[in-house]
Amino acid sequence: MAESRWQRADGRFQRVLLILGAVVLVAMITSVSYGEYAIAPLDVIKTLLGIETANPGDAFAIRTLRLPRTLVAFLAGVGLAMAGTLTQGITRNPLAAPSIIGVNAGASLAAVTVLVLLPNVPFSVLPFAAFGGALGVSLLIYLFAWQGGSSPLRLVLVGVGFSLIGGAFTSVIVTLGEINLASQALVWLAGSVYGRTWEQVIALFPWIAICGVLALCWVRELNVLHLGDDTARGLGSLVEGQRGFLLLLAVALAGASVATAGTIGFVGLMAPHLSRQLVGSTYQAILPTAALMGGAIVVLADLIGRLLFAPIELPCGIITAIIGAPYFLYLLIRDRER
Predict the structure, then answer these.
(1) Which fold has domain 76-334?
(2) pTM here?
(3) Least-confidence region, from 141-150, 249-258, 309-318
(4) Which residue among 43, 62, 112, 254 is the one 20 to 30 A from 126 at the CA level?
């Protein structure tokens, strides 16, 4: 009986991954095909496979202008979704996410400081700056939440406070900055992948790949931590060490994503919840499902932002906020008794 139940769950997980993979692929091809002039999806596929099309100019538009933007959107969505999943598992709070508990605020503060005050710094430095900002805020959260141990509830409450502080300092820097640099920072803060190039793809990919693989390797410990600190200790888990390491991975994933695509909110909240409804409660299934879900959400949000009021583009962060804020309120009302 137990074995057949496990087989059914595993089969459902595989089907969900296949469906999500197909959705991501279709969304990315559609996103690449849409622009100032439309390119047929079949021509996009041919170009990506190295097959010549009727219009030789399509290759430049696809490979140089549109594909990097779509890849950045997908990678940023994967990073934010995995960071949100790790955060919810660490805190045992379904309403926790990097954008809510202060991690994104720290990354944004550091990135905006570099963009406004050090505009000549190479872009490859930006993920490291954002990681440093997110790590610094996370360490402060951990320090202020420590009271004979790191209570998940205190982590969330202290994180909300630091999120507000980080947002206030970011606003100060933008206000005092030179007008053109401040305008660029404001667009970036809205969460936009406009104008992203292969430089940003190359800078972001190692962070997502390395930290994502490490998160998948440590996902068993996330399941153990989710059972509660006392149970986890009883099972032989080094609670504080495992929680600190998983939090570090979440910080790296969120920081690199924010540095590259700006503050795209609510992806880290929505993707884990939607994945949990599809594949159950084990993080071995939730984490990869949420990664694909997050990538699909950001790619589709970027596409909707371009289609909605064309030729005017809305940043994808605005689209995710329009969808994510009501979803957050729904979760808050649904879980208010807990």
Answers:
(1) ABC transporter involved in vitamin B12 uptake, BtuC (1.10.3470)
(2) 0.86
(3) 141-150
(4) 62
